[in-house]
Structure formats: structure tokens, C-alpha cells
Amino acid sequence: MYANDIELEVKVDDFQNPESQNSKSLTSKVTTYLRWIGSILIILSAISFMLQGHEEILPAYRYWIGLGLTLLLCSGGLVCAYLFHETKGARIFFGLGAAFIPVQVSQVAAMIYAYWHGNKALQPEYSWLQFMEVSPTVIAIDFVITGLLLFSVNYASYSILARKHLKTLIGASVIGNTLLLLPIRDATLVPLVIAALFLFLRKTEHKLHNDASMRLAEGMAARALISLPLWILAGRSLLHPASFLLLIVISAILVIYCIYDIKRYTKSPAIIYMTQWIGTFAAMTIWISILNELLLTNDNYFGGLLPIALILFVLSDKVNYHAQLYRLISSIIAIGLSYAALSGQETMAPLFAITAGILLTIAGMKYREKMPFISGNICVTGGLFFFWEYAINFYSSAPWICSIGLGLIVILLASYIENKEKQIMAKSRYYFKELKGWN
After folding, report:
1. pTM for this one?
2. What is the pLDDT of residues 236-285, one digit of tens each?
3. Integer CA distances (angstroms), 214 to 39, 166, 314, 433, in order
4. How far apart are CA 345 and CA 313, in angstroms?
5. Which of 56, 57, 45 is nearest to 107 (CA)?
6. Which of 30, 259, 278, 343 is deepest in the core (most CB within 10 A)?
7. Residue-level pLDDT at 281
8. Beta-carbon count within 10 A of 136 CB
9. What is the crossing angle of helices 18-52 and 59-78, to 10°?
10. Residues 342, 382: contact at Cβ < 8 Å?
11. What Cα–Cα distance (Å) separates residue 408 from each residue in 70, 265, 402?
């Protein structure tokens, strides 16, 4: 009863003193800005240390400096939690500490890889990314310390950020960091590892996203932390000679994130619009890369580019902006490439043209749009006319057979038109009326 009276007095006092509320609001804004500034300074300072190189510092020492920074961040979290009894700062410190763990893991991974492969190890051009000549004893000590940190710091961080999904988050983090430790830099295996980790994290992400609490700031931070090993893997792979498979995997990840998944993270029209185009160009890059890898010759080059039109049509159903423009561009590309293939006498040109035409026609009917529908008819017509040469050659070799066949078709057509005149006229008027009402 006494506590309720005090709470009531405080509320009345705040109501009677709006300056008190304004002061609290101002303090909250100032502390928020200070936390952002402090976090950015810590991150930029750590990145600066790693990128500047410091060639005079041995790789093992660089690891220990990073380790000291991670422990310092965790100490800051403990101070906020137990000395200041303040959870926001503790969450930030432990979150930053968890973010630095994959960096420590990547350094140990570089040491293991260099020792495992010796002089045959692929090393990046930059000396500050090379971890050569580290003794096995130091590597073993660093490995054990990193493993202990991986469990302890992640446990503390995810406990304070999202305790409800602690087991899931720690499991995802351990799997990601374990894959990061693998001593491989192969142009085929690394893209496969990246793809597998991406699919696993995306499945985990969908599960976490279904919980409303994981869409709050703390939950979003925890979800972002488990994806860090994936981005380090992808970034590390770019330091070595690029491969066809790596380009395909990275482009596919961009397509999924930029067109499908971005809407789960933001409602900003500007961000969604920008990422939509990034995802679109990434999707086209995938197919162009496949064509280049297949070393497509001029005999079927234009026909091979036709799937770009199909890609744009598929994406038009998923994007938030300019869906009709996607279908318009796709229709124009399909006509241009079909007739370029036909005029170039490409082997599969008629099949490509007719197939593209049928798909465009069906799409035009589905979306009730004139351009895809008309483009489809043009492509089908062009594909059929491609066989006109064969018809002429056949007529030259056996004119009487062609004349008899043509005569029979003309007579039957005349009979059909006379018998179905009303139905044909009614359907034709309905057809043009519907087509006129389409976009």
C-alpha cells in the first residue's frame, strides 16, 4: 500500500512537472547518442588496427591484442551489469564482444591453415593478413582460448540479448565459427561451404523471425551476430582468386537477401528500392556467368541469352516497384534476342523463339498486359516462319503434293468459316474488347 502511494505521488509529480519529463527525454537521447558514438569508435578502431597492417607486430601478437580487446569489452559489460546495474550498456558491450569472436576465430583459422599446408598455402597479397611461421604450441593455445571464449562470451551475450532462444543462437554461432576454422581455401569447396552455411542460417533466421520478441532491437542484434561467420567466410574468399562457382553463390545470396529477405528487416522504401536493383543485376549476373563458363559459341549465343527475359518475368512477381516495367523490358529483350537468333541462323533459334513466345503469351494473359501478349505472338510467328524455307524446299521437290494439301486446307477452312461465322465473329469481338482493356 505504501509503495503504491509513493508510485502515485511520483506520477502526479511528473504530471505536475512536465520539465521533469522533458529532462528525462533529453537525457535518454543524449545517452543513446553517446552509446552509438562509443560503439562506432570501438568498431572503427578495431578495424583500423586490423587493416593498417602493423608489419612489425607478429601474427601471434596480433591475435593477443584482439583477445585483449574482446576481454576488455566483456569487462565493460560486467561493470555495467553489476556495478551500474544498467542493462543497455551491458548488452552493447557483450554484443560487441560476441562480434569480435569470429574475428579471433578467423585469425586462428589462418594460423591453422598456414601450418597445415606449409609453403603450399594460398596467402593473400597483404602481409597483414598472412599468419605464417606460427609455432604449433601457440596455435594450440590460441585454439583452446578461442574455444573457451566462443562458448563463454556467446553464452553471456545471447543470455542478455535473447535468453529465450539461447540454445538456438549458441548452436548457430558454434556451427558458423567451426566452418570458419576449416583449413580450406579451395575454389570449389569454399563456395559450397558458404552456400551450406547460408541455407542453414536462413532456416534458423526464419524460425527466429516468427517470434515477435526477436524483431526487437536486442533480437535483431542477436540474429545479426550469428551471421558474422558467413560474411567473414565470403569476404575471406574474395582475397583469393575468384572462381565461377563462388561468383554464382555470392550472386545467389545477394538475390535472396536483396529481393526476398530485405522486407523482413526494414520497411524503408529507399532501401527496398535500392536493394531491389542490386538483386536484379545479381540475378542476371548468375546466368551470364553460366553462359561464359559454358563458352557459348556464336551458333547459339542469342538464344542462350533468352533466359534473362525469363529471369525478369519471375522477379516481376517478387519486386515491390516497377513490376510492369520488368515485364515490358523482358518482352522487348525476348523479341530482340529471338529475331537476332533467327536472323543468325542459330541451331535452336526456332525452338527458343516459339518457347519464349508461348511463355510471353501466357504471361500476358495472366497479368492482362498487352506488351507481353503481343510480343509472345510476334515471337511465335517468327519461330514458325523460320520453317518457311523448309516448306519452300519441300514444295520445289513435290509441288503437286503441296498443291493438293493446300487445296484441301482452303476448302475445309472455307466450310468451317461458313458454319461457325457467328461464333467466330462473337469471339473475335470479345477478344479485341478484352485486349483493348488490358494495360
Report:
1. 0.74
2. 888 777 788 888 999 999 999 999 888 887 888 899 999 999 999 999 98
3. 21, 12, 31, 52
4. 26
5. 57
6. 259
7. 93
8. 10
9. 170
10. yes
11. 88, 66, 10
- The C-alpha cell of 205 is what? 533466421
CA–CA dist 76, 89 (Å, integer):
8
Which tens digits make up the pLDDT trace of 288-309?
888 877 755 555 667 677 788 8
Greater confidence (364 vs 40) lies with 40
Q: What does the alpha-carbon distance between residue 334 and residue 49 come to, in Å, rounded to a whole number?
A: 51
246 closest CA partner among 255, 257, 238: 238
Residues in the chain: 439
